[in-house]
Design a protein that fits this description.
By secondary structure, the chain is α+β, with helices and mostly antiparallel strands. 35% of the residues lie in helices and 19% in strands.
Length: 465
């Protein structure tokens, strides 16, 4: 997919010649006695963070035209691959000691990967490196977040529901009282996210009414022990699990009494790039003349390069998930947690991605079956194939010549098409191309192509133009 970016990889841009000469006047913000120790043999994390050579030596300002040169001098990983391989060997050895209580699988990235972009950095886009090693990594908490979202969608969303149930999600991943599907509320002001939260809560309430909760009491008991104020309350909840679940949906105070981490532990993941360097992507926005200077919108504006560091496509990601139940978790899923998690991985690989900017195609991966133990590889592949009739996400629709209107008061864009309506909330400059923005501002409406996604009986706008 083309997202309007230019992707460059270190193997194609070796630092040297005139390019190196042009970058000589930028240095790292370190004491002069440390400068002789700077070299490309250092781990990329050290060169990208503490020793990032992007400052003017004379006045310590940040030259905008030298950022990419600084990245090129920081992305080398060839001399750190030995350390990276040792880290992976250490993880594999520890995993082998856990026998059946570990799920290990390999994935290969099919798109650039990045994480930690919110970390403060001169490029305005940071990156996560594990200290003190200086190696790029995906924190285990990030892996858990993606897989938990996958399992929640498998349990609650449309045709997926039934693949998991929410009690199994809580048992393996832990209970979060602030989840949108429990409260029916979204922290975002966007209308479609609020509607989605309500839809998920309704889906959960419907499942509670139809499920045979008595047969799942072992999954509920750890939660009941924490939520019950007395032994009598615990007995009442156990005898009426449906009432307890309805209480969780209605009572915020009851939800806040429950704190458990779940039975799974997610290890950090260390990507192994295929070459000797990391890579860089460059965003090239070229509508500054319109958004900032108020000029007429057109496609011939001057691009403004914005570089950021990534792990290149083709990198190997080795995932390890440990089964480590505590006294506060249930053993209900002990016999089938690997197959269940294999299904979650398959869903995450197909629809979610890992790391940052997954909504625009970053962090996409595919399973490498040969990298897992045979039984696990078969389990993951089987789970990928088995639920195929259920794993289709809501089908998006394209409305040709939909009629757009905009309400400045509540910043709501409304699209109507054949008696159907979809909305999205936000600034029009951020949600549609400049030529359509100009029409909206002039005529208060416009007709254009709109992509929407059904959520229950309503629609949300995915893209405009």
């Amino acid at each position: 997919m083309n997202f309007g970016q230019r992707r460059t990889q270190g193997a194609h841009h070796a630092a040297g010649g005139s390019r190196q000469a042009n970058a000589q006047n930028t240095v790292a913000a370190i004491p002069s006695y440390a400068a002789p120790y700077m070299n490309t043999a250092m781990p990329p994390g050290h060169n990208f963070e503490l020793f990032f050579p992007v400052w003017n030596e004379t006045d310590w300002t940040l030259p905008k035209d030298k950022k990419f040169h600084a990245i090129e001098r920081s992305w080398h990983i060839k001399d750190s691959k030995g350390m990276l391989e040792e880290m992976l060997k250490r993880q594999r050895h520890q995993a082998d000691l856990l026998n059946e209580n570990i799920l290990s699988l390999d994935a290969r990235s099919t798109a650039p990967f990045l994480t930690g972009i919110g970390i403060e950095h001169p490029l305005e886009n940071g990156f996560s490196f594990l200290k003190p090693y200086g190696l790029p990594y995906l924190p285990g908490s990030g892996v858990k977040g993606v897989l938990k979202k996958a399992c929640e969608e498998l349990a609650l969303v449309g045709e997926h529901s039934g693949a998991w149930n929410i009690l199994e999600v809580w048992s393996l991943f832990g209970f979060e009282g602030g989840s949108a599907y429990l409260s029916g509320e979204s922290r975002s002001k966007a209308k479609f996210l609020k509607e989605r939260a309500c839809s998920l809560k309704q889906s959960l309430a419907s499942w509670v009414n139809s499920a045979e909760l008595g047969s799942m009491i072992s999954l509920l008991e750890p939660l009941i022990k924490q939520a019950a104020a007395s032994k009598g309350d615990a007995e009442a909840y156990c005898s009426n699990p449906k009432g307890f679940m309805e209480g969780l949906l209605k009572n915020k105070d009851l939800r806040e009494k429950i704190h458990n981490r779940g039975a799974l532990v997610f290890w950090d993941v260390f990507p192994m790039p295929p070459g000797d360097t990391l890579s860089a992507d460059i965003l090239t926005p070229h509508y500054g003349h319109y958004y900032q200077d108020g000029k007429t919108p057109h496609d011939s504006g001057q691009p403004v390069p914005n570089q950021f560091l990534t792990v290149p496509p083709g990198s190997l990601f080795r995932f390890h998930v440990q089964y480590a139940p505590t006294g506060g978790t249930s053993d209900h899923s002990k016999e089938r947690w690997k197959a269940m998690l294999g299904q979650a991985f398959a869903y995450a690989f197909d629809w979610l991605g890992f790391g940052a900017k997954t909504a625009v195609g970053y962090g996409q991966m595919t399973l490498e079956a040969h990298g897992t133990k045979p039984s696990e590889a078969q389990g993951v592949e089987a789970e990928k194939k088995a639920p195929s009739p259920k794993s289709e996400p809501p089908k998006r629709q394209t409305w040709e010549n939909a009629h757009l209107t905009y309400s400045p008061g509540n910043q709501t864009i409304t699209a109507t098409f054949q008696n159907k309506k979809a909305e999205i909330k936000g600034k029009i400059e951020e949600l549609m191309p400049p030529n359509i923005v100009a029409k909206i501002k002039k005529k208060k409406s416009a007709d254009t192509r709109v992509m929407v996604e059904p959520i229950g009986n309503s629609f949300i706008i995915i893209s405009i133009g």
